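STRUCTURE:
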């Protein structure tokens, strides 16, 4: 009897976990997607937006993220069919949180005049807010996102535009092995609110993930092949799930998925809003070379073209925005910060990653980019999502039994 009584708390935990995962509607958007890239503009020598759009179109880039709502850029993308994510700067977030009218005013002035000719499909509210020092900004983020979503609904745009925010990988207290992914204690309370909003609006969780930093910080212990996502590398096996990872980036994404699942939101899709590798760095920036940047981005693009998913979600292609299109000469910080681009500002290649060849040989698949002209609410229950929920539930149940 004593043994049975001692199991009651564990049984309650198991029941709670099963309720979370089996009663939640595990649904993911299944859609063909195009290659995606970040178009940063912290530079004084970039080509005009019209030329940039021509370059992107020639490469068959179907998704682009920008860090503002530059009218010239929004105008240049009109009629191209390229999907665009725009950004609300941090300093506007508190005002939008406190006033629904401010959110509506910003949307009406900055986005609505260009839509739908310019296919805005996402709004990033702030950037890496939860790992900053501004507590007011952190508390304002989700209320601002809710007000923006309400403004989109008021203007009839909510079925076409998703509201989210990009995070630094530092929101995780543990990222390895992936099955042990968990948010930091500081971020967890905000994350629960955010994930609830993302689940309610079918929006993705965006993460800025850079394996380069892990390698630079500890090159003697971190495998370069693993950081570069070399497919021939043996990689690492998660001891709890037995899933094998040949890519650190994909392992980092799964760690975020597990962390979200621990808060009851394993059905929220995780997308990579930024990732890349610098082609040049300072003397102490180990690994920042043209050769490594070429290899990392080439490997990533090949995985994207093949439609590869993560080991946890193998049937769901991981959406990744490569950072970045251009080297940006006015970015502060170490030399690496100004050398993430695939292209120089004069539109010559920093190195030939093979993007033009990929876009040509994969024209059939790349031409299937989702059009915001069709509603993105065509969501169905997906076996891959169910596998995520069941896998995480089994893992957590097993751990509970061991307590």
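SEQUENCE:
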């Amino acid at each position: 009897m004593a043994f049975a009584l001692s199991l009651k708390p564990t049984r309650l935990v198991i029941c709670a976990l099963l309720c979370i995962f089996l009663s939640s509607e595990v649904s993911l958007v299944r859609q063909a997607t195009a290659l995606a890239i970040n178009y940063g503009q912290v530079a004084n020598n970039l080509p005009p937006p019209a030329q940039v759009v021509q370059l992107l179109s020639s490469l068959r880039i179907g998704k682009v993220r920008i860090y503002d709502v530059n009218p010239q850029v929004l105008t240049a993308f009109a009629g191209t069919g390229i999907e665009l994510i725009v950004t609300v700067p941090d300093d506007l977030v508190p005002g939008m949180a406190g006033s629904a009218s401010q959110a509506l005013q910003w949307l009406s002035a900055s986005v609505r005049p260009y839509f739908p000719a310019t296919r805005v499909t996402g709004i990033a509210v702030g950037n890496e807010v939860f790992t900053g020092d501004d507590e007011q900004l952190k508390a304002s983020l989700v209320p601002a996102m809710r007000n923006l979503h309400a403004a989109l609904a008021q203007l009839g745009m909510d079925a076409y535009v998703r509201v989210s925010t990009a995070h630094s990988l530092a929101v995780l207290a543990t990222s390895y092995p992936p099955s042990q992914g968990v948010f930091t204690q500081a971020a967890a309370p905000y994350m629960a609110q955010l994930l609830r909003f993302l689940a309610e609006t079918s929006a993705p969780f965006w993460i800025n993930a850079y394996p380069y930093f892990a390698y630079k910080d500890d090159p003697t212990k971190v495998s370069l092949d693993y950081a570069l996502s070399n497919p021939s590398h043996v990689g690492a096996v998660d001891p709890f799930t037995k899933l094998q990872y040949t890519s650190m980036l994909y392992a980092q994404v799964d760690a975020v998925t597990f962390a979200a699942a621990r808060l009851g939101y394993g059905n929220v899709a995780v997308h990579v809003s930024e990732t890349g590798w610098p082609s040049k760095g300072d003397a102490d920036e180990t690994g920042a070379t043209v050769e490594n940047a070429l290899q990392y981005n080439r490997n990533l693009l090949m995985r994207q073209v093949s439609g590869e998913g993560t080991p946890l979600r193998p049937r769901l292609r991981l959406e990744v925005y490569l950072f970045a299109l251009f080297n940006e000469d006015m970015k502060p910080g170490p030399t690496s910060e100004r050398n993430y681009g695939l292209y120089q500002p004069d539109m010559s290649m920093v190195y030939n990653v093979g993007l033009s060849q990929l876009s040509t040989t994969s024209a059939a698949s790349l031409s299937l980019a989702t059009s915001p002209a069709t509603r993105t609410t065509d969501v169905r229950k997906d076996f891959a999502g169910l596998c995520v929920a069941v896998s995480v539930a089994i893992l957590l149940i097993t751990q509970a039994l061991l307590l």
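REMARK: The first strand starts at residue 27 and ends at 28.
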